[in-house]
Structure formats: structure tokens, C-alpha cells
Design the sequence.
């Protein structure tokens, strides 16, 4: 066990969040150290990113879709648009203040929840709007103007189905307008962009929606994800069209928020390898520069974040290199800002959960929690009778994949009170694979669990890879447990995954079959911990992670 854990926890609790956040990734760092950067600036799944300039004019804040994952609405901070740090979440749960929806999202609702948010700074506060395709348009705002601090419970601005991809615009006269797209899966129509007026405080509609752009029946089909801006007397809607993996970015302008809008393609793949470059946020910096953050769909890795320069010299926001995405480019002008990346590795020395981690559903204390011993404990989830796979297990502790090639190594202890309890390391998507320790009698089996099309209810397959004797046994008669200390490793290389294990942390034995990583529902594959059991009546066992480290292959 680690030394000086209590002192570490005390120091960690007293440190401000920003002081703890300067983490440098070993596997992907976009800052080249010579005044240039290489895309993607975040090589992880931050789908549908949006960004705003903060109150100081020198801070930028980003959020992204979080769907059913909890906590939701990640908040990232940067001063140069290249080096990003994690500072918090706007949603502790889905949806605070609404007991029925809190209960609904207590089980995994894959692909539901928070779609395509927008973040804005207005009148001393930060606001995030998003569309939940099943429940309507929601808004959450800061409490005290600090996006790294507390956010209020969300407000349902417009109830209904099918409304997605929402962005507010507060005009110079104080009026507020909302633009949105539509989800065909709920509304049975799509490829249109609508605008309506909201109350000045942005909490309720006071006007009816107006279709301001129609992509039906033409090359601008699947227009969605609109962002609303005003520049030099023009109203601007920037939105993607053409589909996620193959689409492009449109810019539209009008002298009225209700149109009509003329439009132009301002970013497309062209001759580059960056497919479907679109859907993001534009910022104008205090240094007079313009930049656009957008995503690229990379299949199992999810939707990663790119940064493009923007040239307004023609009166249109032409992005990248004359409308094609750049790979390497000069960094934006900015104050001094250290090289920093979103957290990946975790020593579990903090009394709070690391910001890189999310659960699959609303948190319950029985999922697990940090300990005072420098570990994170995840209790066994009680699987329902007749379970076939792990798709609906809510207490998986998971994070995004951070690069195309990386290695994850973790030191953990499996504690079991009864047969059938298991836990270990998983790479999770609509297909998944895990290497777990499972109790069988007075021993542990090392088991490979694999499932293809888990989202369709398919039965997982299991292969026993080894039988291990416990490394410790409780020497009491009252509910004794047996324990196994082990190191588990997964290596990802171009979406192929291999597992290995070690009992001493030095020599690792490859185990199991190679696995083809697969995305989840609207999100990239994620890795982390699984802990479950097959008996409804026994005392829970648990997995206790000492550390997890993300390194180069």
C-alpha cells in the first residue's frame, strides 16, 4: 500500500482544482513545443464540442455531449485552445431536481441524455443549453460565474421530443433567440434548422419556431448541430451537413434571425485524411484571431477534437487551409500557458473521484467510492437473474480512450465473499472484452469475457485463462473473504486490443484473444473497471484499484 496516504489526501483536499490539473499525457500531446500544434488537439471522444470565451477574454471553456454518462457535461479550460485541462462537470446527475428522471437514468440509457450542448457567457454567468431527444431543451447555468465551480440544477426550457442541438443568442437589444436541429428518430423529420424567441432570461419560449434552413432533398441533408452567432450586423448559423463521417461545415448569414439565410461550405475534407470535419464552435479572441473547434469521427475511438484557423477576409468564415482542415499549424496567440492535457492516469490518492472517470448511469453510493487508503473501491453490482451480458451494468468506472496507441496498466485487489463474484479491467462498447478475476470455490479464475453486439442482448462468451490461489485469506469466522492481488494490462494499437496479467508487476503474461475495439452508442469505446456478481443475496465483494497508468506502447 502507498506511503503517507493520509497526508496526500489532506493536501489534495486543500489544493485548488486548477493547481492539480496540469497533467501531461504520455500518449498524445498536441503541443509541438515550437509554437505549433498537431491535430487533434484532444485525441479523445469529446463529441459535438462547443467553446466560448470566458469573462477575462483570455480563458476558453469547452463542453461536449455526454449522453447517459455521469457526471455529465464535461467542462474543459484552456488559454491557448491547444492545451486543455479538465476542471469539472456541469451535471452531477441526470436530471437534478426531477425525481422521475433521476430514477429513469439510474439504469444505463445508452445513447440518450445530453446531446450536442452549447456553452455561452452572458451577463456574468455561464450557460449551457442542450437537447435531450426524449424530454426537451434543457439549460443549466453557473452559480457565481465560475464554470469550474457549482452549477444550478437544470431547467427544462422547452419540453418535447426530437428537439436537439440547441444554441442561444442574446442580441444587443436583450432579446434571446434559440436555434435547434431535429432528431428524426423521435420527430420523424430532420434536416431542418429552426429559430424561435425565448424570454430574455432564456428560460422559456415566447415565440413559435420558424424553419430557417432546409437540407431535405439536396446535398445539405442531415443538417444539424447549429451554433448561433452575431458579427458585424449579420446573424450567423454555423452547422454541419452531409452526415457524420463524410459531411462538411456550412456557414449561413442573414440580416434577420429568422432569415432567409444564404449559405456556403466553409470546411470540408478535400484532399486531406481528416474525414467529416464539422460541428463545433467558433471563437474570436482578444488578439483579433478567429478559430474553430470541431470533431472528426474516428469510429471506435469516438469523435476527437480538431482546431482550425478561420479567415474572414472574404466576408465568410473560411476554415483551415482555404477550406480544408490543417494537420499542423501555428498556435493561437495567447498568454503563457503550460503544456497540459486531460487527465488519464490516476493514483487514486484524492478523496474525490478523478475527473476523467464517469459511471454508466446516475451514481448510487453502492457503486463504489474513494477510500482513505489511496485506493478506489468498486463494489460488485448485483446482476439480474438470466443476465446475458454487461451492457446494463451501471457501476462500470470508465474513461475515454486517449490516443490511437496506448497501454493501460492497473494494480488492483479482488476481494470476494462468495462464489461468482468478479471484477477486473474492461474495454467497453457495443462489443466489449474484459479480463476479470472470478471466485470459484476457494480459488480465483482468470476469465476472459467477450460479447459482440451487447446492445442487442447477445450472450457473452467466457474463457477460463488460469486458476490462481488467493494471495490472502481472512482469518476470522465472521463473513471471511479471500483476496487476490494482481496487475492487469490492456494494450491498444490501431483499435486492436490485447490483454496481459502479472502477479508481481514485472513480468506480464499475454492472455486471451485479440479483440477488435468497438464504439458505444454515439460514443467511443471506453476503458476502466467492471465489478459484478451473480447472486442477489450474498454480501458484496469488490475490486479495489491502487492505481491505473496510461503509457506508451
Sequence:
Amino acid at each position: 500500500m502507498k506511503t503517507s496516504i493520509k497526508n496526500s489526501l489532506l493536501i489534495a483536499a486543500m489544493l485548488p482544482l486548477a493547481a492539480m490539473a496540469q497533467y501531461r499525457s504520455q500518449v498524445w500531446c498536441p503541443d509541438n513545443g515550437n509554437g505549433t500544434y498537431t491535430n487533434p488537439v484532444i485525441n479523445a471522444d469529446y463529441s459535438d464540442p462547443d467553446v466560448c470565451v470566458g469573462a477575462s477574454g483570455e480563458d476558453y471553456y469547452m463542453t461536449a455531449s455526454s449522453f447517459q454518462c455521469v457526471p455529465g457535461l464535461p467542462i474543459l479550460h484552456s488559454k491557448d485552445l491547444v492545451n486543455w485541462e479538465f476542471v469539472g462537470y456541469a451535471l452531477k446527475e441526470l436530471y437534478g431536481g426531477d425525481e422521475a428522471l433521476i430514477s429513469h437514468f439510474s439504469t444505463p440509457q445508452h445513447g440518450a441524455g445530453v446531446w450536442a450542448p452549447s456553452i455561452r457567457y452572458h451577463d456574468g454567468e455561464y450557460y449551457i443549453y442542450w437537447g435531450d431527444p426524449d424530454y426537451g431543451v434543457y439549460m443549466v447555468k453557473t452559480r457565481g460565474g465560475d464554470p469550474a465551480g457549482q452549477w444550478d440544477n437544470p431547467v427544462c426550457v422547452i419540453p418535447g421530443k426530437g428537439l436537439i442541438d440547441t444554441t442561444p443568442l442574446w442580441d444587443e437589444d436583450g432579446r434571446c433567440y434559440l436555434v435547434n436541429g431535429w432528431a428524426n428518430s423521435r420527430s420523424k423529420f430532420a434536416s431542418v434548422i429552426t429559430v424561435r424567441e425565448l424570454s430574455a432570461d432564456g428560460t422559456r419560449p415566447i415565440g413559435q419556431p420558424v424553419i430557417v434552413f432546409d437540407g431535405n432533398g439536396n446535398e445539405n441533408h442531415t443538417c444539424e448541430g447549429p451554433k448561433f452567432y452575431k458579427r458585424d450586423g449579420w446573424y450567423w448559423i454555423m452547422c454541419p451537413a452531409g452526415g457524420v463521417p463524410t459531411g462538411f461545415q456550412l456557414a449561413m448569414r442573414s440580416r434577420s434571425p429568422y432569415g432567409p439565410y444564404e449559405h456556403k461550405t466553409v470546411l470540408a475534407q478535400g484532399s486531406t485524411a481528416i474525414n467529416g470535419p464539422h460541428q463545433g464552435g467558433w471563437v474570436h479572441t482578444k488578439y483579433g484571431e478567429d478559430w474553430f473547434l470541431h470533431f472528426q469521427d474516428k469510429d471506435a475511438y469516438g469523435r476527437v477534437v480538431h482546431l482550425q484557423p478561420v479567415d474572414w477576409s472574404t466576408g465568410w468564415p473560411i476554415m483551415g487551409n482555404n477550406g480544408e482542415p490543417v494537420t499542423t499549424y501555428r498556435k493561437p496567440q495567447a498568454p503563457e500557458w503550460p503544456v497540459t492535457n486531460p487527465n488519464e492516469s490516476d493514483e487514486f490518492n484524492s478523496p474525490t473521484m478523478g475527473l476523467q472517470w464517469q459511471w454508466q448511469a446516475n451514481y448510487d453510493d453502492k457503486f463504489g467510492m474513494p477510500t482513505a487508503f489511496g485506493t478506489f473501491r468498486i463494489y460488485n453490482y448485483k446482476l439480474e437473474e438470466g443476465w446475458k451480458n454487461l451492457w446494463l451494468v451501471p457501476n462500470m468506472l470508465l474513461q475515454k480512450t486517449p490516443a490511437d496507441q496506448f497501454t493501460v496498466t492497473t494494480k488492483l485487489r479482488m476481494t470476494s465473499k462468495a462464489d461468482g463474484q468478479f471484477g477486473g479491467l474492461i474495454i467497453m462498447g457495443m462489443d466489449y472484452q474484459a479480463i476479470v478475476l472470478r471466485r470459484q470455490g476457494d480459488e480465483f479464475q482468470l476469465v476472459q469475457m467477450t460479447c459482440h453486439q451487447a446492445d442487442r442482448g447477445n450472450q457473452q462468451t467466457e474463457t477460463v485463462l488460469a486458476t490462481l490461489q488467493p494471495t490472502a485469506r481472512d482469518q476470522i469466522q465472521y463473513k471471511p473473504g479471500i483476496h487476490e492481488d494482481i496487475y492487469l494490462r490492456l494494450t491498444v494499437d490501431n483499435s486492436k486490443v490485447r490483454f496481459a496479467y502479472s502477479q508481481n508487476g514485472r513480468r506480464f503474461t499475454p492472455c486471451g484473444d485479440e479483440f477488435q475495439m468497438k464504439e458505444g452508442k454515439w460514443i467511443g469505446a471506453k476503458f476502466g473497471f467492471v465489478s459484478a456478481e451473480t447472486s442477489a443475496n450474498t454480501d458484496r465483494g469488490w475490486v479495489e484499484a491502487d492505481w491505473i497508468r496510461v503509457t506508451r506502447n
